[in-house]
Write a structure and sequence with these properties.
heterodimer, A: mainly alpha, 0% strand, B: mainly alpha
């Protein structure tokens, strides 16, 4: 009985510890990334507004990516989520990987999820 | 019949006396405890390169009582060697009893030399065994650290790869951000760039530091565990040499005992020859030889 309680406590503490290790830099990065994507997909914005919002978002995102890339606490983590984020560099670190590929961040993201420019043009021309 | 048993008033005095004796004896026991080396070194030395690690261990040993004792014995050995050499060189200058005395002194000096050498080998063995235990302990620690690291290795590798990729586009990214967003760089961005530049220059200075040059040979150890195993192996080799030195010392002692026996025979022969000049005891064994003693009385 006592052993079960200890095991449950250990299990719970392990989950909480790993959760706290993941939180922080990656969580902030993910929040800003979703804001940027929401701007990108927001149909109520005109081109200029979207450009402006994405520009602000991009600057913040660049800083947050640098913070996450240099977060030493993440190296101590054993979370599969952290591994997934860094393995999927193209989609996790949008600003840096877009600069690497020489494309705009929007194009980079859209191509990352499987939508090329020609796909989008074709989709528009389809009745 | 009266018994001389201690009374109640005497008991505290006896207890105090016994305690005093016990303390004195334990003090003597402590004072006569053999010198040793108990490494005071931290496990943090594992992060040091091989040469520095060895130096740190050597420094720790140099501060031990065993090291100072070894140095004293070394000095005594050196003085004995000088003594033996000077006596051997001047041996031909002496004659008679003086020559025998010199020979005796040479033998005594050689015996002292063998004794000191034996003591020195014992201390060397103690030092090497402690060093071996230390290396084995460090190897176990390194292995434990390594198994902990193995679980995180994949994440670390992924992070390192991402950092490297991001690092290659950092300067282009700064320019691109400046031109594309048409916004001033954030305070974090400025500080980040300045610190990054400082870190890069320091990293390159560390990489080019002469003390940080890795052993580039084909036979260089691949990791810390292998490095420590090789150090332990070299200590074991030194212990094997000590065993051989012990054997050499044993042969020396045997030769010295033969020399001493030859010397004893020589001294006995001289004593025998000198006794021949004195009245021969054998002559008095027959009654006829003693007649003069009686006749002249």
């Amino acid at each position: 009985m006592t052993r079960n309680i200890i095991q449950t406590c250990l299990f719970a503490s392990a989950i909480l510890i790993s959760a706290s290790a993941v939180a922080g830099s990656l969580e902030n990065l993910e929040r800003e990334r979703s804001i940027m994507v929401s701007h990108l997909l927001d149909a109520d914005l005109n081109v200029a507004q979207r450009q402006e919002k994405i520009a602000f978002s991009k600057r913040r995102l660049a800083d947050l990516e640098r913070i996450a890339l240099n977060d030493k606490a993440l190296k101590e983590s054993r979370s599969p989520l952290v591994l997934k984020v860094f393995k999927n560099y193209e989609m996790s670190f949008l600003v840096h990987s877009a600069a690497e590929s020489g494309r705009s961040m929007s194009t980079h993201w859209l191509e990352g999820i499987g939508l090329s420019t020609s796909d989008l043009i074709n989709a528009r021309s389809t009745p | 019949m009266r018994h001389n048993r201690p009374t109640g008033s005497h008991r505290p005095f006896m207890m105090a006396a016994l305690t005093g004796i016990a303390l004195t004896l334990s003090g003597q026991a402590l004072a006569s405890s053999p010198p040793s080396w108990q490494p005071q070194i931290s496990e943090k030395i594992l992060v040091l390169p091989q040469k520095q690690l060895e130096r740190a261990i050597q420094r720790d040993f140099a501060a031990s009582p065993l090291a100072s004792d070894m140095m004293n014995v070394d000095q005594q050995i050196a003085s004995e060697v000088t003594n033996i050499q000077s006596l051997s060189e001047n041996q031909h200058l002496y004659e008679g009893e003086a020559a025998i005395e010199v020979k005796h002194q040479v033998l005594a000096a050689k015996r002292a030399y063998i004794g000191l050498m034996g003591e020195q080998i014992g201390m060397k063995r103690k030092k090497l065994q402690t060093k071996l235990r230390l290396y084995r302990h460090l190897t176990r620690t390194a292995r434990r650290n390594d198994s902990n690291l193995a679980a995180r290795r994949e994440i670390t590798a992924a992070i390192d790869a991402a950092q490297q990729r991001a690092g290659t586009v950092e300067s282009e990214l700064r320019e691109e951000l400046f031109y594309s967003t048409n916004l001033p760089e954030s305070k974090f961005g400025e500080d980040y760039a300045a610190n990054r530049q400082a870190i890069e220059s320091l990293r390159s200075a560390i990489a080019n530091h002469p003390l940080n040059k890795a052993d580039g040979s084909i036979d260089a150890p691949r990791n810390k565990i292998e490095e420590l195993q090789r150090l332990a192996m070299s200590v074991e080799a030194q212990l094997a040499i000590l065993d051989m030195e012990d054997e050499v010392l044993g042969h020396m002692a045997k030769l010295l005992s033969l020399d001493a026996m030859a010397f004893a025979e020589e001294v006995a022969e001289i004593a025998y020859l000198s006794n021949e000049e004195a009245p021969n005891d054998a002559e008095f064994r027959s009654p006829a030889a003693g007649v003069q003693l009686f006749v002249n009385f």
